[in-house]
Amino acid sequence: MSKKNIAHPGDSRFHWLDEQTGEQRSALWVNTSDDSRLDKFSYEVSEHIQDDIYSYSLLKSMYGFKMCESYDSIDDMPLRDDAFSSEHIGKHVLFAGCSMTWGTGLDKGERWIDMVYNHINSLNSHSGLFNVAQEGDGIQNQVGYIIEYCSKYGNPDTIFFNVPDFWRLLIKDKVFRVYSGEYSEYSQDAVANVVLSIGRHYYKMLEDFCKINNINLISISWDGVTNNVLKDFKTFIHIEKNYLERLIFKYDDRSEASMSARDGLHPGVATHKAWTEIVLDKLKQIV
Q1: Could you tell me if 28 and 1 are in contact, meaning their C-beta atoms sit under 8 angstroms apart?
Q2: Among positive and negative, which fits the CA dihedral 74, 155, 109, 246?
Q3: What range defines the domain where residue 130 resides?
Q4: Which of 131, 130, 127, 103 has its CA nearest to residue 273?
Q5: What is the total count of domains within the chain?
Q6: Which whole-number Å values give the CA distances from 264 to 6, 107, 136, 196, in the listed order?
Q7: Is residue 270 part of a domain?
Q8: How confident is the prediction along the chain (287 residues), in pLDDT tens digits per residue?
Q9: Domain for residue 28, yes or no?
Q10: Is residue 248 part of a domain?
Q11: Among the four 48, 101, 191, 209, which has the fewest Cβ within 10 Å?
């Protein structure tokens, strides 16, 4: 099977003219799955699968490559934030997601989770910045990690989840990005519909888990398709692209990582500030 690029439905740059300088500026507002750019990742996501993945009848027509490992326990995963603890003095929150929550290409303090946590911690004492997000991860792993975290370290008061795109599937204990046909919430492609159904199922399972355990769940998604597929869930914030762009422009301070993260692949600090405003607005409504 020949190597080919994948046109991610959310892969887009927006452009505008700086009124003060006349300079044309542009920014990447979501991630991309273009192979030539994936080679720039700081971790191994560009390993192309030629034999293994195609042995599955469901996935035999799909193009895929490994995104990340799947850990047997959350205690085995690398952490960028506070070590997990079962002792919580004050409020208890948990963050989840993929590289957008890990903060690939950004320093600590520049990520949306830092800004959200610092704000809520300034209002009420919290027990720590706990984060199960992993670079390249998908919703199946993340829901599993969230539930495992709760069983080991207690139920948080609130979970903040930046949901990955749905086409990262857990296969043979690893997460693969897979694609076949048109990936769209309106797609008639059979495999794409399976991918969407799996994603919705796992999100519904997480929402129900949070409901029966009295946990506030606040979710967004950086991915355009996921943003539309989950828009009817009460715990999910559907973000209109035009609104997000206006917020990003508001927060663009023209610094080094304002519009694109330092890896050139992920959204910059302005996008993380926009996500922070959206999430905190929602939190005010439910707490």
Answers
A1: no
A2: positive
A3: 45-236+277-286
A4: 103
A5: 1
A6: 18, 14, 16, 28
A7: no
A8: 333 322 233 333 334 445 566 665 444 333 333 333 333 322 232 233 233 333 233 333 343 556 777 889 999 999 999 999 999 999 999 999 999 999 999 999 999 999 999 999 999 999 999 999 999 899 999 999 999 999 999 999 999 999 998 888 876 677 776 654 455 555 556 667 778 889 999 999 999 999 999 999 999 999 988 999 999 999 999 999 899 999 999 999 999 899 999 988 899 999 999 999 999 999 999 87
A9: no
A10: no
A11: 48
Token pair for residue 147?
A: 């539930």
Output the six-digit token pair for 156: 């948080």
Amino acid, single-letter form, for residue 280:
L
**Identity (one letter) of the amino acid at 93?**
V
DSSP 267: B
Residue 176: inside a domain: yes
- In the structure encoding, which two tokens stand for residue 127, read together? 């027990």
171, 106 contact by CB (below 8 A): no
Instruction: Please give the distance of CA 137 from its chain centroid, rounded to a whole number.
Output: 8
